[in-house]
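Researcher: Please generate the 3D structure of the following complex. Treat every line as part of one assembly.
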Amino acid sequence: GAVVSQHPSWVICKSGTSVKIECRSLDFQATTMFWYRQFPKQSLMLMATSNEGSKATYEQGVEKDKFLINHASLTLSTLTVTSAHPEDSSFYICSATSGNIQPHGYNEQFFGPGTRLTVL
Amino acid sequence: GESVGLHLPTLSVQEGDNSIINCAYSNSASDYFIWYKQESGKGPQFIIDIRSNMDKRQGQRVTVLLNKTVKHLSLQIAATQPGDSAVYFCAETPGLETGANNLFFGTGTRLTVIP
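Model: Done. Output below.
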């Protein structure tokens, strides 16, 4: 259980185009989804948090008009990289939480397999 | 923001030996810690967790130690196997009492197991 998928797994696009990445919770309803970016040989950096049906909360330094996040249903969140440029090339990872709080109080995040974006 | 870092960026061990991966954190209010394993081209995989009211937790072949005095976390892998080769991240979430679930990741350590 608790499987999260991402589509596509990799994408190559031309500079200036927009790319949409999907994150789906396959066997649970995700009340909250998180989007991370990971540059080569670096750690995961949280970009934004989205709750179903409401606007995403972006981390400091992340342009909300550049990275559009939509969480329209309890099983799907999308990240659209608008007017992509080579510096946007990265590994984008989503995670999802079900809202079931564990005994220790933490709401476990289940991670997707990631999407490799390359902008030419 | 919170800062979670690692002492060693790379670690090579012989198959069968024990591995120790270290992590330092700066936020004394950090409440909950998780170790993740990430294989190349994949998302992070949960290994083990520990809450701040504990100093040790054991899983299958893995043990996490937490020293709150010096704000240090370690992951011990017993009898390391080639399949353990990956990048390991510690992550922390501050303030469970506030309901915050955001994760802050450390820089990662690449573990290479030599057959």
